[in-house]
Amino acid sequence: MRLFLLCLLLLWLTFSARAQDNGVGDQSSNQGDEPGAAxxxxxxxxxxxxxxxxxxxxRNIQIRPNDSWARAVKPDIREALKRGxxxxxxxxxxxxxxxxxxxxxxxIDLRTGQLFWIPGGYQLDLEYYLRSRLxxxxxxxxxxxxxxxxxxxxxxxxxxxxxxxDRENVADTSYCPPLPNIGKQxx
Length: 187
Description:
There is one protein chain. With about 190 residues, the chain is of the alpha+beta class. The protein has one domain. The protein has 3 helices and 8 strands. It has helices at about 1-20, 70, 75-85; strands spanning about 30, 90-100, 100-110, 115, 120-125, 135-140, 145-155, 160-170. The strands form 2 sheets. A 5-stranded mixed sheet has the order 1-8-7-6-5, with no helix packed on it. The protein has a 3-stranded antiparallel sheet with strand order 2-3-4. The longest helix has 21 residues, at about 1-20. The chain is globular.
């Protein structure tokens, strides 16, 4: 019995060390108590490769009956279908202006026509690439104590999984720095 428990302990130590080396479960967070205390993500787009979809895009957009937003912006979604993939090999990102400094974002699967929400909030800014499943999101959280939020999400094929988060308190949400690239090829 002792030998069994010792083996179990060694296995647990080995797997936990591998998980830390691979960054599994690492969702670093900086609460940013002081302005300027933001940390940059160390995740790299090339570490999340995506297979490129080479066939014709789906003809039909799958819009749920109660999805009034998608029905309202159907022309924008059709344009995204025509434009082709720009994220994770087979998705086209749809950015729609929803008011003063507001951007709503979804992505459409070119293989199936299915729509997915992109995480984020007010003053949304995105960085993403065709050949990567990593999406960097920056947005402002307006309140009495405004916060700039930066997050990295991995697209797993069905949902976004948060891999990094940094929150920085600011005097005004206009101080939130934008992301440098949207949909451009990484260097």
